[in-house]
Design brief:
This protein has 364 residues and is an alpha+beta fold. Helices cover 29% and strands 17% of the residues. The protein has one domain (88-344): Beta-lactamase, CATH 3.40.710.10. The chain has helices at 3-16, 40-47, 94-107, 133-137, 148-155, 167-177, 192-206, 210-219, 231-234, 267-276, 283-288, and strands at residues 27-29, 55-62, 65-74, 77-81, 88-89, 264-265, 293-294, 299-301, 306-309, 315-322, 327-333, 338-344. A hairpin with a 4-residue loop joins strand 10 (315-322) and strand 11 (327-333).
């Protein structure tokens, strides 16, 4: 992963965040280091568009070694800051961790990814629809992006769209209202519902809640001690989220779909997770990166990860996330032991940017 590629990802990420009109250009007091180096002006150019109290936390991994860089805009001035251990909502980046829990059960011989999830439930799904674990983990289930009994309330509660969507409502949807948008396996279409259903299934299978599963299979294993789905666990290090106008936002309550986007984490912790991907002994992580579906000539789908094939032959594993007050992105190059993680406390309600030859930073 060349430096130019790294800066490209940073630039696309920053442009992708919702940005307000620029009223007061920020004074530049950023300090260069080995992470930014000659690209400091580019970082300033794009961070300069963001409102006061915006923070950007960057974790760069080169040859398996992590480096960190932080930016904060305060009183219309951009400063370098140390925020590698500050917590942000990571949104849909959570999906990689949900798939990692599944991969642990597969590697341990407890779950076959092609088996149906239905026996775990005490009721029949609407129209007797059945799903495999893999179909949920690689977005080929045919399910829509959100359940129909959540979409309407989410429109009128955009500050916290999943709040109040509990397992009782989820069960009602699964039993009475669930429909497929397309034939299962015919394509991969991104679904928060599908990954939420996978995490719900794993909770039922194990008898543990999602936080307990993450602690057992991910956080403790990779020493991610500042990561959690419980806000009170990170409240002392949590950066306040902001909308596109720079106004503080409430943190999202993920409810029954917690496995689709419920984790708080730091660039330091996420770097530990990224570096663990480079160790072939971590068979469960290797399994999440195995191609399970070909989406296009340049992009495949693993379990949780999207696999980007670049013109120079490099292969990147990528995911990102966006909530009402935060945006996240992670890209890793396993072969060369490189990677980049970017977290910010600015609204992730962003649109697709870039072209077919670039990494797309799309809030999901």
């Amino acid at each position: 992963m060349y430096k130019l590629d790294i800066i490209l990802i940073i630039v696309l990420f920053l442009v992708g965040c919702g940005r307000p009109p620029l009223d007061t250009p920020a004074e530049n007091r950023l300090v260069a280091d080995s992470l930014i180096n000659e690209h400091l002006d580019s970082v300033y150019k794009f961070a300069n568009r963001f409102p006061n109290n915006t923070q950007i936390a960057v974790g760069l991994i080169q040859n398996g070694k992590p480096y960190f860089y932080g930016v904060i805009r305060y009183n219309d001035t951009l400063f370098t800051t140390q925020n590698s251990d500050s917590a942000f909502e990571i949104g849909s980046l959570t999906k990689v961790f949900t798939a990692t829990i599944l991969a642990n059960y597969v590697v341990n011989g407890e779950i076959n990814p092609d088996n149906k999830i239905n026996p775990v439930f005490q009721f029949q799904f609407n129209n007797n629809i059945q799903f495999s674990y893999k179909e949920l983990a690689n977005h080929t289930s045919g399910l829509p992006r959100l359940p129909s009994n959540l979409r309407f309330t989410a429109i009128f509660n955009q500050d916290n769209p999943y709040k109040g969507y509990d397992h009782q409502k989820f069960d009602k949807y699964l039993k009475n209202n669930m429909k497929l948008n397309y034939p299962k396996g015919s394509k991969s279409e991104y679904s928060n519902l599908g990954m939420g259903l996978l995490s719900y299934t794993l909770q039922k299978y194990s008898g543990k809640n999602f936080e307990e599963l993450l602690n057992a299979f991910v956080f403790s294993k990779y020493q991610m001690f500042n990561s959690s789905t419980v806000k009170s666990n990170v409240s002392d290090i949590l950066v306040v989220g902001q909308n596109a106008k720079g106004e503080p936002t409430s943190n999202w309550a993920s409810g029954a779909l917690i496995g689709a986007g419920g984790i708080y984490s730091t660039v330091s912790d996420l770097s530990k997770f990224a570096i663990a991907q480079f160790d072939s002994a971590n068979k469960e992580l290797a399994l999440t990166r195995v191609k399970t579906f070909k989406e296009t000539d340049t992009r495949d789908v693993g379990l949780g990860w999207f696999i980007i094939h670049r013109k120079n032959g490099d292969q990147w594993y990528w995911h990102n996330g966006g909530t009402g007050g935060y945006t996240s992105s992670m890209v890793i190059d396993v072969e060369n032991k490189n990677g980049i993680i970017i977290l910010t406390n600015l609204s992730g309600q962003a649109k697709l940017l870039g072209d077919k030859n670039k990494i797309f930073i799309l809030a999901q």
